[in-house]
Structure formats: structure tokens, C-alpha cells
Design brief:
5-stranded mixed beta sheet, globular, 6 helices, single chain, 10 strands, 5-stranded antiparallel beta sheet, alpha+beta
Length: about 220
Amino acid sequence: MKILQKAMLLSVLAGCSMSAMAQVTLNVGANTIVTAINGQEVKNGLFTEPKRQFTLEAGKHVITAKYNRLYELHGDNHDVLRSSNISLPVELADNQSYKLVMSNQPENYQQAKEYAKQPTLAITQSGKTLASQQATASDGSSIFSGLGNALSGVFGGGNKAVQANQQAISALDGKSPNVVPALATAPTAQSTDTLDQFMQLWLKASPEEREKIRQWVQK
């Protein structure tokens, strides 16, 4: 009898242990770059594909991401369409898979230029939208405005993605944005290299703008 009781106890403990270790899979859709999770910056290498899958603990999370799409135009011309950071609070259940997407993306370049100003970040499961958040209007499309932000990051400037993420956390808890007691901690993820912003701005610049950038950097 005691042996049976011990076996049952071990079975219950094993079940509790498995439940405690239960995790969530978050897949990331096309043209979506995750920039921060739960107050931590997510880094993406300059010449590598952005991270497309995250393993998180079950529970509450604040995920920040950007719409980012490279269009190859006529000849050697390119344009990188990029939105401001969008922060989405979500609650994810044990042993479930979810997808993070930019909803209703247009394929047409002109329509995508408008979409990039205010895209919608969403969490979906089996094709059903569980939560969504639309970006605020972009704060200035000037190539030089963007260049200033990129270089300030390269040389030690603030991280807007983390700030946006922490502000969303702060709004949820009503506490300091540096404190995240209500959120499960995401694993340390790979980091957004701010040089990526510079590369994208360079691709987006016209030949005249590129020459001005060279002159500006050499000052």
C-alpha cells in the first residue's frame, strides 16, 4: 500500500513539475521585427534574419515590434518601409503556440507606404486574432531625422523600443517602468543592432541624400 501511495505521490509531483516548466511558443510573421519583450531589448544582427521564434513562460507579457519591409523597386532602387514601435500586452497560456503578425498588410508598394505609418500588431492563434494594437502615427519621415536617431543609437543613445515597452508595462501596473513584477521574464534574446537602422536608412536614401550623409558623417 505504501509503495502504491509513493508511486501516486511521485506521479503528482512529476505532473506539477511539468506544469511549472510549461512554456509558450511565439512565432513571428513576415515583415515583423520584435524589438523588446518585458522591458528587455531583443537584438537582431545587422546581416542576419531577425529572430522568428521565441519560447516564453506562460503568463503576461508586453511585446514590442515594428513593421519592417524592404521593397525592391526599378533598377537598383530600394525602399525600406518601417513603422514606429508598437507595444502589445498579452496573456499566453501553457503549452500553446501563438503567432505575432502585422495584420492586413498590403502587397502594393504605395499602399504599404501608408500602412507603415500606422500598422496593427496582433497576436493570433489558429487564424483568430486574440489581441491587437495599432501604431501611433510615425514621428517624421525625414531621412535625416531617421539618420540622427540611428546614429545616436550606434554611439550610445537611448533605446526607443525598450522605452516604449517599459511605458506599456508601467501603464498596466501603475508602477515604475523599470519594475516588471506582473510579467513572466522572457529569456535573454538576441539584440537589435542599431547599425541595422543606419543600413536601412542608407538603402532608402536617394543618391543626393547619400552624398549629404557622407559629408555629414565626415564633419
